[in-house]
UniProtKB/TrEMBL annotation:
The keyword Glycoprotein does not apply. CDD domains: JBP-like. It comes from Haloechinothrix alba. The lineage of its organism: Bacteria, Bacillati, Actinomycetota, Actinomycetes, Pseudonocardiales. Keywords: Dioxygenase, Iron, Metal-binding, Oxidoreductase. Its cofactor is Fe(2+). The keyword Cell membrane does not apply. GO terms for molecular function: dioxygenase activity; metal ion binding. Residues 111-269 form the 2OGFeDO JBP1/TET oxygenase domain. This is Oxygenase domain of the 2OGFeDO superfamily protein.
């Protein structure tokens, strides 16, 4: 495994121009092709690339669960959707491009729902969620081995969280599953500062592009099937357009040729430590519903 400490980074002004935009090959000059630890100029880890780390771990059932999420679309990915947010008519809320991305696992009391919960898909598909747990444990094992200090910090937070919100034997509460679309340059919000994020890739059919890139450092990686990258998701990152052999720039798996790039981002949501037990959070949800009905 190479261990490389970068010497340079682009200026804040140059980086600002790229935020929210989809990355292109002009944004990188180093593409990782083998196992590598990449450090920032200050010596802190930027990413650890582990080709084929999940080979033999991802079963057909796991793939089917992740592939089965391709119909879940969201307008809530903000600049990570690769397009600016827009307002519809005179509505107050803003929306970003609709992209095939799903959040599964646990979620804190954020947004409209002021209580902690398993996401709607997770609640409806508990056996499928559990099918993914061995994969998440294998990802956690790699995190422990390659970035032990970040793993330990994240595990400590997971241990002081009610266990119904944590994937057993991992420091993860939540997973974002993306299917074949480019993310605009963004940083992840809501995950633990002292921790580290992880991104696993499953790939089917033939396509070009999709490179995951850290534009501040001009480093990219073309993730292949069962590759894993451990990464500082508080550094700006994004992935390039995915073009299949039909010549289409994809926003979702290609229905014609089957080209598909699934990215599985597993992390710990900082605010989960403040959640009550599942029973307490359910009571909070009922209470909120009753209060809302009473004020109508
Ligand atoms: O799919 C990728 O390579 C990037 C995904 C990502 O950055 C995200 O979901 O926040």
């Amino acid at each position: 495994m190479i261990d490389l400490r970068l010497r340079s980074r682009i200026s804040d002004g140059e980086l600002d121009q790229k935020i929210g935009k989809v990355i292109t090959p002009r944004d990188w000059n180093l593409v990782l092709t083998g196992p590598a630890t990449i450090r920032k100029p200050n010596g802190h880890p930027l990413c650890v690339y582990l080709p084929k780390a999940l080979d033999g771990i991802v079963t057909r059932d796991m793939y089917e669960v992740l592939h089965g999420l391709r119909g879940e679309r969201t307008e809530n990915r903000g600049i990570a959707s690769g397009s600016p947010r827009v307002r519809r008519g005179n509505q107050k809320a803003t929306y970003s491009r609709r992209v095939p991305s799903a959040i599964i696992g646990a979620f804190d009391a954020a947004g409209r729902e002021k209580y902690c919960r398993l996401t709607a898909w997770t609640g409806r598909n508990l056996p499928q969620w559990q099918t993914l747990h061995p994969l998440l444990r294998a990802i956690a094992g790699n995190l422990e081995q390659h970035v032990p200090d970040r793993y330990a910090a994240q595990l400590a937070e997971a241990q002081r969280t009610h266990q119904e919100w944590v994937v057993p034997d991992t420091p993860f509460t939540t997973v974002t599953v993306n299917n074949t679309y480019p993310t605009g340059v963004h940083t992840d919000a809501g995950d633990l500062d002292a921790g580290f994020s992880t991104l696993a890739c499953l790939r089917r059919g033939t396509y070009t592009g999709g490179h995951l890139c850290f534009p501040r450092y001009r480093v990219a990686v073309d993730m292949h099937d069962t590759d894993l990258i451990l990464m500082d998701a508080h550094e700006y990152h994004g992935n390039a357009h995915v073009t299949c052999t039909c010549g289409t720039q994809l926003n979702g798996m290609c229905d014609t040729c089957g080209a598909e790039r699934i990215s599985v981002v597993s992390y710990f949501r900082t605010k989960m430590t403040a959640c009550g037990t599942e029973e307490e959070e359910q009571q909070r949800a009922v209470q909120r519903r009753e209060n809302r009905n009473a004020t109508r």
